[in-house]
Amino acid sequence: MYNLNKVYGEGDTKVHALQDISISVNKGEFLLIVGSSGSGKSTLLNMIGLLDHPTSGKILIDGIETTTLSDGKISEFRNHKLGFIFQFSNLLSDLTVLENVMLPKQIQGKNSSASKDAKELLKIVGLEDQMHKRGNKISGGQAQRVAIARGLVNRPAIVLADEPTGNLDSVSAQNIVQLMKSMAKKLGQTFIVVTHDRHQFGDVDRVITIKDGRAFEGEESARLEAVA
Ligand SMILES: Nc1ncnc2c1ncn2[C@@H]1O[C@H](COP(=O)(O)OP(=O)(O)O)[C@@H](O)[C@H]1O
Ligand SMILES: [Mg+2]
Protein backbone atom coordinates (compact mmCIF):
# COMPACT_ATOMS: atom_id res chain seq x y z
CA MET A 1 0.00 0.00 0.00
CA TYR A 2 1.19 3.46 -0.79
CA ASN A 3 0.84 6.80 1.00
CA LEU A 4 -2.24 5.65 2.81
CA ASN A 5 -4.09 8.27 4.80
CA LYS A 6 -7.26 8.01 6.81
CA VAL A 7 -9.02 10.98 8.36
CA TYR A 8 -12.10 10.43 10.49
CA GLY A 9 -14.61 13.24 10.97
CA GLU A 10 -14.31 16.92 10.17
CA GLY A 11 -13.44 20.22 11.84
CA ASP A 12 -12.82 20.04 15.57
CA THR A 13 -13.46 16.32 15.77
CA LYS A 14 -11.08 15.46 12.94
CA VAL A 15 -8.73 12.53 13.64
CA HIS A 16 -5.85 11.79 11.29
CA ALA A 17 -5.81 8.06 12.11
CA LEU A 18 -3.30 6.99 9.43
CA GLN A 19 -0.52 9.20 8.10
CA ASP A 20 1.28 8.38 4.88
CA ILE A 21 1.61 4.65 5.42
CA SER A 22 3.52 2.67 2.79
CA ILE A 23 4.05 -1.02 3.42
CA SER A 24 4.78 -3.87 1.05
CA VAL A 25 4.01 -7.37 2.28
CA ASN A 26 5.69 -10.46 0.83
CA LYS A 27 3.81 -13.60 -0.05
CA GLY A 28 3.90 -16.14 2.77
CA GLU A 29 5.04 -13.54 5.28
CA PHE A 30 3.77 -13.56 8.87
CA LEU A 31 3.61 -9.83 9.56
CA LEU A 32 2.84 -8.59 13.05
CA ILE A 33 1.50 -5.05 13.45
CA VAL A 34 1.99 -3.76 16.97
CA GLY A 35 1.24 -0.53 18.76
CA SER A 36 -0.62 0.84 21.74
CA SER A 37 -4.38 1.25 21.91
CA GLY A 38 -5.64 4.01 19.61
CA SER A 39 -2.48 4.04 17.46
CA GLY A 40 -4.40 3.14 14.28
CA LYS A 41 -3.90 -0.64 13.97
CA SER A 42 -7.55 -1.56 13.40
CA THR A 43 -8.01 1.37 11.04
CA LEU A 44 -5.11 0.07 8.94
CA LEU A 45 -6.41 -3.50 8.93
CA ASN A 46 -9.90 -2.30 7.96
CA MET A 47 -8.40 -0.49 4.96
CA ILE A 48 -6.47 -3.57 3.83
CA GLY A 49 -9.60 -5.68 4.42
CA LEU A 50 -11.70 -3.30 2.29
CA LEU A 51 -14.06 -2.78 5.21
CA ASP A 52 -13.53 0.97 4.96
CA HIS A 53 -12.12 3.38 2.36
CA PRO A 54 -8.88 5.31 2.84
CA THR A 55 -9.08 9.11 2.54
CA SER A 56 -6.17 8.95 0.10
CA GLY A 57 -3.56 6.49 -1.11
CA LYS A 58 -3.55 3.16 -2.91
CA ILE A 59 -3.80 -0.47 -1.89
CA LEU A 60 -2.71 -3.27 -4.19
CA ILE A 61 -3.53 -6.89 -3.38
CA ASP A 62 -2.36 -9.63 -5.73
CA GLY A 63 -1.57 -6.92 -8.28
CA ILE A 64 -5.08 -5.48 -8.22
CA GLU A 65 -5.68 -1.91 -7.11
CA THR A 66 -8.52 -2.34 -4.67
CA THR A 67 -9.13 1.35 -4.04
CA THR A 68 -10.82 1.74 -7.43
CA LEU A 69 -13.10 -1.31 -7.22
CA SER A 70 -16.86 -0.74 -7.25
CA ASP A 71 -18.84 -1.70 -4.15
CA GLY A 72 -20.15 -4.82 -5.86
CA LYS A 73 -16.66 -5.92 -6.85
CA ILE A 74 -15.33 -5.17 -3.37
CA SER A 75 -17.43 -7.83 -1.65
CA GLU A 76 -16.53 -10.37 -4.31
CA PHE A 77 -12.86 -9.49 -4.01
CA ARG A 78 -13.02 -9.66 -0.22
CA ASN A 79 -14.60 -13.08 -0.32
CA HIS A 80 -12.09 -14.49 -2.81
CA LYS A 81 -8.86 -12.88 -1.73
CA LEU A 82 -9.13 -12.16 1.98
CA GLY A 83 -9.69 -14.16 5.14
CA PHE A 84 -10.66 -12.55 8.43
CA ILE A 85 -10.10 -13.48 12.06
CA PHE A 86 -11.42 -11.06 14.66
CA GLN A 87 -11.13 -10.81 18.43
CA PHE A 88 -14.52 -12.44 18.80
CA SER A 89 -14.91 -15.45 16.55
CA ASN A 90 -18.41 -14.42 15.38
CA LEU A 91 -19.53 -17.97 14.64
CA LEU A 92 -23.16 -18.43 13.69
CA SER A 93 -24.64 -20.27 16.65
CA ASP A 94 -27.43 -21.93 14.65
CA LEU A 95 -24.91 -23.60 12.37
CA THR A 96 -22.55 -26.44 13.20
CA VAL A 97 -18.81 -25.93 13.33
CA LEU A 98 -18.51 -27.57 9.92
CA GLU A 99 -21.24 -25.39 8.39
CA ASN A 100 -19.56 -22.26 9.74
CA VAL A 101 -16.29 -23.20 8.02
CA MET A 102 -18.10 -24.08 4.77
CA LEU A 103 -19.81 -20.68 4.53
CA PRO A 104 -17.10 -18.67 2.73
CA LYS A 105 -16.94 -21.33 0.00
CA GLN A 106 -20.71 -21.53 -0.32
CA ILE A 107 -20.90 -17.76 -0.73
CA GLN A 108 -18.62 -18.25 -3.74
CA GLY A 109 -20.98 -20.91 -5.07
CA LYS A 110 -18.38 -23.63 -4.57
CA ASN A 111 -20.82 -25.99 -2.90
CA SER A 112 -19.30 -29.20 -4.18
CA SER A 113 -15.87 -28.69 -2.62
CA ALA A 114 -17.08 -26.80 0.50
CA SER A 115 -17.55 -29.79 2.76
CA LYS A 116 -14.32 -31.53 1.77
CA ASP A 117 -12.20 -28.38 2.12
CA ALA A 118 -13.84 -27.38 5.41
CA LYS A 119 -13.22 -30.83 6.88
CA GLU A 120 -9.60 -30.71 5.80
CA LEU A 121 -9.10 -27.36 7.53
CA LEU A 122 -10.88 -28.55 10.68
CA LYS A 123 -8.54 -31.51 10.77
CA ILE A 124 -5.51 -29.22 10.52
CA VAL A 125 -6.77 -27.05 13.41
CA GLY A 126 -7.48 -30.18 15.46
CA LEU A 127 -11.27 -29.98 15.61
CA GLU A 128 -12.30 -32.87 13.43
CA ASP A 129 -14.14 -34.46 16.35
CA GLN A 130 -16.12 -31.26 17.11
CA MET A 131 -17.41 -30.48 13.64
CA HIS A 132 -21.03 -31.43 14.23
CA LYS A 133 -21.40 -29.32 17.38
CA ARG A 134 -23.15 -25.99 17.16
CA GLY A 135 -21.08 -22.81 17.02
CA ASN A 136 -22.15 -21.81 20.54
CA LYS A 137 -21.41 -25.19 22.16
CA ILE A 138 -17.62 -25.02 22.10
CA SER A 139 -15.02 -23.13 24.16
CA GLY A 140 -13.60 -19.72 23.29
CA GLY A 141 -10.27 -21.23 22.26
CA GLN A 142 -12.01 -23.81 20.08
CA ALA A 143 -14.22 -21.12 18.54
CA GLN A 144 -11.12 -19.18 17.58
CA ARG A 145 -9.68 -22.32 15.96
CA VAL A 146 -12.89 -22.59 13.95
CA ALA A 147 -12.52 -18.93 12.99
CA ILE A 148 -9.01 -19.67 11.73
CA ALA A 149 -10.29 -22.62 9.68
CA ARG A 150 -13.07 -20.40 8.28
CA GLY A 151 -10.58 -17.63 7.50
CA LEU A 152 -8.36 -20.01 5.53
CA VAL A 153 -10.91 -22.19 3.76
CA ASN A 154 -10.87 -20.06 0.60
CA ARG A 155 -7.07 -20.08 0.62
CA PRO A 156 -7.05 -16.29 0.49
CA ALA A 157 -4.14 -14.14 -0.64
CA ILE A 158 -3.99 -12.64 2.86
CA VAL A 159 -5.45 -13.58 6.22
CA LEU A 160 -6.14 -10.50 8.35
CA ALA A 161 -6.42 -10.93 12.10
CA ASP A 162 -7.32 -8.13 14.52
CA GLU A 163 -6.37 -8.99 18.12
CA PRO A 164 -7.14 -12.69 17.55
CA THR A 165 -6.02 -13.59 21.06
CA GLY A 166 -7.57 -10.58 22.80
CA ASN A 167 -10.49 -12.52 24.22
CA LEU A 168 -8.59 -15.62 25.37
CA ASP A 169 -6.80 -16.77 28.52
CA SER A 170 -3.02 -16.97 28.17
CA VAL A 171 -2.88 -20.73 27.52
CA SER A 172 -5.52 -20.62 24.76
CA ALA A 173 -3.86 -17.49 23.38
CA GLN A 174 -0.53 -19.34 23.09
CA ASN A 175 -2.25 -22.20 21.27
CA ILE A 176 -3.87 -19.83 18.80
CA VAL A 177 -0.57 -18.02 18.16
CA GLN A 178 1.24 -21.31 17.52
CA LEU A 179 -1.57 -22.51 15.28
CA MET A 180 -1.52 -19.36 13.13
CA LYS A 181 2.25 -19.48 12.82
CA SER A 182 2.24 -23.15 11.85
CA MET A 183 -0.54 -22.54 9.29
CA ALA A 184 1.55 -19.76 7.77
CA LYS A 185 4.52 -22.12 7.43
CA LYS A 186 2.62 -25.23 6.38
CA LEU A 187 0.40 -23.55 3.78
CA GLY A 188 2.67 -20.65 2.78
CA GLN A 189 -0.23 -18.46 3.86
CA THR A 190 0.34 -14.70 4.20
CA PHE A 191 -0.84 -13.36 7.57
CA ILE A 192 -1.19 -9.77 8.76
CA VAL A 193 -1.88 -9.89 12.48
CA VAL A 194 -2.62 -6.89 14.69
CA THR A 195 -1.91 -7.03 18.41
CA HIS A 196 -1.23 -4.71 21.34
CA ASP A 197 0.48 -7.67 23.05
CA ARG A 198 3.80 -8.07 21.24
CA HIS A 199 5.40 -10.64 23.56
CA GLN A 200 2.59 -13.15 23.04
CA PHE A 201 3.77 -13.78 19.47
CA GLY A 202 7.46 -14.50 20.01
CA ASP A 203 9.50 -14.90 16.85
CA VAL A 204 7.75 -13.74 13.66
CA ASP A 205 8.94 -12.96 10.12
CA ARG A 206 8.47 -9.23 10.48
CA VAL A 207 7.18 -6.58 12.88
CA ILE A 208 5.80 -3.14 12.03
CA THR A 209 5.06 -0.66 14.79
CA ILE A 210 2.24 1.86 14.45
CA LYS A 211 2.56 4.98 16.52
CA ASP A 212 0.14 7.90 16.25
CA GLY A 213 -0.97 6.69 12.82
CA ARG A 214 2.54 6.34 11.42
CA ALA A 215 4.25 3.05 10.55
CA PHE A 216 7.82 2.08 11.47
CA GLU A 217 9.64 -1.04 10.40
CA GLY A 218 10.62 -3.19 13.38
CA GLU A 219 10.08 -3.07 17.11
CA GLU A 220 9.45 0.09 19.07
CA SER A 221 12.35 -0.71 21.43
CA ALA A 222 14.81 -1.10 18.52
CA ARG A 223 13.67 2.23 17.08
CA LEU A 224 14.19 4.04 20.38
CA GLU A 225 17.68 2.58 20.71
CA ALA A 226 18.54 3.72 17.18
CA VAL A 227 17.43 7.27 18.02
CA ALA A 228 19.30 7.36 21.35
N1 LIG B 1 -15.10 5.19 13.17
C1 LIG B 1 -14.31 6.10 13.73
N2 LIG B 1 -14.68 7.40 13.81
C2 LIG B 1 -13.87 8.33 14.38
N3 LIG B 1 -12.66 8.06 14.91
C3 LIG B 1 -12.23 6.78 14.88
C4 LIG B 1 -13.03 5.72 14.29
N4 LIG B 1 -12.35 4.56 14.41
C5 LIG B 1 -11.19 4.86 15.03
N5 LIG B 1 -11.11 6.19 15.29
C6 LIG B 1 -9.96 6.89 15.92
O1 LIG B 1 -8.80 6.61 15.15
C7 LIG B 1 -7.68 6.36 15.99
C8 LIG B 1 -7.14 4.96 15.73
O2 LIG B 1 -8.09 3.99 16.18
P1 LIG B 1 -7.91 2.41 15.97
O3 LIG B 1 -7.48 2.17 14.57
O4 LIG B 1 -9.13 1.74 16.44
O5 LIG B 1 -6.69 2.08 16.96
P2 LIG B 1 -6.14 0.68 17.52
O6 LIG B 1 -6.80 -0.41 16.78
O7 LIG B 1 -4.67 0.76 17.33
O8 LIG B 1 -6.48 0.66 18.98
C9 LIG B 1 -8.16 6.59 17.41
O9 LIG B 1 -7.87 7.92 17.76
C10 LIG B 1 -9.65 6.37 17.30
O10 LIG B 1 -10.32 7.09 18.30
MG1 LIG C 1 -7.95 -2.05 17.47
How does this model look, in words?
This protein has 228 residues and is α/β, with parallel strands linked by helices. The protein has a single domain (2-227), classed as P-loop containing nucleotide triphosphate hydrolases (Rossmann fold), CATH 3.40.50.300. Helices cover 36% and strands 22% of the residues. It has seven helices and eleven strands. Strands 7-8-9-3-10-11 form a six-stranded mixed β-sheet. It has a three-stranded antiparallel β-sheet with strand order 2-1-4, with no helix packed on it. The chain has a two-stranded antiparallel ribbon with strand order 5-6. A hairpin with a 6-residue loop joins strand 1 (2-8) and strand 2 (15-21). Helix 3 (97-107) packs across helix 4, helix 3 (97-107) packs parallel to helix 5 (140-152) and helix 5 (140-152) runs parallel beside helix 6 (170-187). The longest helix has 18 residues, at 170-187. It is globular. The model has no long low-confidence stretch (mean pLDDT 93). Residues 8-9, 15, 17, 35, 37-43 line the site of adenosine-5'-diphosphate (ADP).
Please describe the topology of this protein.
Blueprint: E1 2-8, E2 15-21, E3 30-34, H1 41-48, E4 56-58, E5 60-61, E6 64-65, H2 71-81, E7 82-85, H3 97-107, H4 111-124, H5 140-152, E8 158-162, H6 170-187, E9 190-195, E10 206-211, E11 214-217, H7 220-227
Parallel strand pairs: 3-9, 3-10, 7-8, 8-9
Antiparallel strand pairs: 1-2, 1-4, 5-6, 10-11
Helix pairs in contact: 3-4, 3-5, 4-5, 5-6
The structure holds adenosine-5'-diphosphate (ADP) and magnesium ion.
Magnesium ion (MG) is lined by residues 41-42.
